[in-house]
Amino acid sequence: MKYFSWHYFEILLKLFTVARNLFLTPLYMFSVPLHLSTFFSPWKKQYVQKRPGFHLDDIFSVISFNTISRVIGAILRSISIFLGLILSFGFGMFGLLISLLWMILPVFTLPFYLMRKKTNKEEAQSLYNNHKNNINSLCMSLFQREEGTFICKRLGLDRESVIKKLRELPPSQFPNSNLGISSISDLWILISENCSFFKEVLSSQSLNMEDIKETALWYEKKESIRKKPLILDSLAIRGLKGFGSDWPYAYTPQLDKYSVDMTKVVTPFPLLIGHEKEILQMEETLLKTTGNNILIVGEAGTARHMTVETFAFRVLSGQCDPHLSHKRVIQLNMTKILSGHSSFVDAKEFFKSLVFEAEFAGNIIIVIDDFDKYIGSEKGHVDLSDIFYEISQSRIGIIGITSPYSYHSSIETHKELPTTFEKIEITPPSSDLVLTELELAVIPVLENNYNCVITFPAIKQTIELADRYITTSEFPSKAIELLDSAVVFARSQKTHIITPIHIQKIIEQKYHIVSGAVSENEKEKLLHLEDLLHERIINQEMAISSLANSLRRGRLNIESANKPIGTFLFLGPTGVGKTETAKALASVYFGDENNLLRFDMSEYQKDEGLARLIGSSRLNTPGELTSKLLEHPAGVLLLDELEKASPDILNLFLTLIDEGYITDHTGKKINAKNCIIIATSNAGAEFIRQSLESGVPKKTLESSVLEYIQTSQIFTPEFLNRFDKVVVFTPLSEGHLREIAKLILTDLNKRLTSKEITVAVTPKLITALSNIGYHPERGAREIKRVITEIVEDTVAKRLLSPLHKKGEVLQIEV
């Protein structure tokens, strides 16, 4: 029964489809439908540049050319139509004959049925039945199949050694399993759950059952998108660019100088996944008689340009509606078009002439990047909106590309354009969709270009780290760029297997932050963070301990990924080490003090201060804070003298401290989840000093200070509760200052190494300097000033003195 179903339904229907398509192919190869509808049209229309006044010779030239070209066109079209019809009839009859023979000779097709490729389900059930008494045998059979080769390659497993080991193993019975086998993927899941040896192999490579499932699914997705043969694809046949398909349309000599034909430039990743809905919407809009204009609206990195490139590729390859298959998708070089003119009026007239040439050609779709720059009279804009509105009423189609902010600020407010352009939003895809895009559209291209193999764990790591650390772009672009950089890095290291380590290295190089598994050296550093920080910070054990604990949790991904690594408010007098602690943290954890982003809140006052931090819509200027976070998504963000910030700025910081992002003037969320946020304040400094003098224990000091801060309405309880920890810094004793003086002098000697002079750091010098610099209300700042004025000045004079000798140890008397 299955055989007759296969013979008379499955195959016969395909043969009828082939017969029909054999009949259609010559018709569209020779553009018969197009030539019939444009039979008396000119063979290439002539375009004449308009000149002022009346010119009889121009009119005569156009009329004579069009008359002659119509005759030529009719002759050539007749030949093309005749050849197409003859071949169509012959091919169609051949296809019909094959179909009829297949109908009446069922017995002779039995060998084809037996040799046919089984369905995925049939193959899976056959394998299971053949090996259901020996799971090791089933495992070996799976590894010997094409899927096994693919899975081993993608998981970084040595296929030959696994098969060799499986051959040596004794038979092993299946445990009781009620798993329904409907695909080869089910068998891979079955062995990953029940085959002891395979479990060991996966565990040794830090892989799990989910990796097997996802890799097997990747193979199935890859197989499912194999391109349908042209003979079975009637839509592709109808979209063929047949012989003479460009005859009815005019040449565009001027336009070609100032544009790129996207249907002739191959897109790097033609198999774009996930924007089928948007591309179909583009087709439907461009097919309209009126209102056939589009605005692609999306953030940078959401594949706005790739969507247009994919649409152009489909026009070129006949994968779109046949009415669009003869179009040319042209991207204008607006900078080149508008430059080199004596006045703006001349530039507009030149642009208008190019548009008229495109309209006259009859098969042009115009693409304009940064469309918003040519709307309105704002700074940096060139207003061409009147021309765009005029074009929008014609048959020519426009595709503009812009961002959500620019659309709302420049285009949506225009009185005419929003009604004549169809808005198509491009949003960032989900992580699952990005995974599929990488697997099917990106990785085949990268592997072909670089002759490498990209493993599945590397893809997972790419998506995870791009999502966490790359904030200047959106998915899928940031994942593609990260993976591309990792491949280039791996090839520079003379390896062709791309693993998660290569992805981690790129993140470390770019953002100076360690990702991936914790190494033994890093474990030691994390365990002894307090000691490392105390090499630069004297006293303040509570602050150091809180910071170290937060860093350990953040590095091991124990805390929520939707918050900053840690958020702290440092309260205390001037000069007790609040800012120095932030610097030490940037140096110890992020590798460099340059990873400290410092903002003094006294410099950001009122509305102007808020605009400076997040940017100004009115002035169209970026924000200082938001720009820094985009450039350095991982580091220490220091908000100095927080008590001087206005209420509006404090409200802005609520989401920054609590949720790890800040919204800029365009409405875009700027990620700060990979930062440690430290705010400092001198608020309550006098209260802290008086409390300690009156004998308040340090254990209860913090709660007393918090109560004072809230009672004095310096900060609200809501704001204080957003911090992970409010840390009270206590004043420094004279003994602390002596330790600080020693640290400063040691650091000075490091800087003097290249000068070949050293300051003798003696107890006598340290005591003398601390006695002079001991002012409790000024803290360590006074001792730094004293060392600068006494020690550093003395060193400078000695270096200039003729008595100075190389390698000298300078004894300083105070």
From TrEMBL:
GO cellular component, one term: cytoplasm
Boundaries of every AAA+ ATPase domain copy: 290-430, 564-733
Residues that span the membrane, as ranges: 22-41, 62-87, 93-114
GO molecular function: ATP binding; ATP hydrolysis activity
Record's keyword terms, sorted: ATP-binding, Chaperone, Membrane, Nucleotide-binding, Transmembrane, Transmembrane helix
Source taxon at top rank: Bacteria
Record PANTHER family: ATP-DEPENDENT CLP PROTEASE (PTHR11638), ATP-DEPENDENT CLP PROTEASE, ATP-BINDING SUBUNIT CLPC (PTHR11638:SF175)
Name of protein: Sigma-54 factor interaction domain-containing protein
Taxonomic classification: Bacteria, Candidatus Gottesmaniibacteriota
